[in-house]
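User: Please predict the structure of the protein below. I'd like the answer in structure-token form so I can feed it into my own downstream comparison script.

Assistant: Understood. Taking the following sequence of 132 residues as input:
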Amino acid sequence: MSEFDRNLIIHRLNRADEALLEAKLLLDNGFANGAAGKAYYASFYAVSALLTTKNLFSKTHKGIRVLFSKHFIESGIIPRSFATSFANLYRCRQEGDYSDYIETDIEAATVLLSDAQDIVNFIRTFVQPLIA
């Protein structure tokens, strides 16, 4: 792995951590839609870091989801439950940002944040030996 890729993975994992903290702050202050969006971005950054370990990149959210599924879920490297959680995080972020009259409640946002934390933690543990 190149030094550039190693640094990019670390950077993306740091962004994931930052997004988790932002999601928690938003949730603690009653902003469930914002928390759901940040929870999605935490998982997005972590998945992007994971894809970098195989030199895989995409410029779109859909592309990231497709590559994640094809190279890590279908092969059994990452548990299928994480693909379901990632898809749900994306859906909730999309609905919260772009759909009128659809709002994420605090309970749902709490679950989404927990799912995002699980994804980030799993991916961090998975990539750690590759970037050490």
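That's the full token string. The chain has a mean pLDDT of 94.
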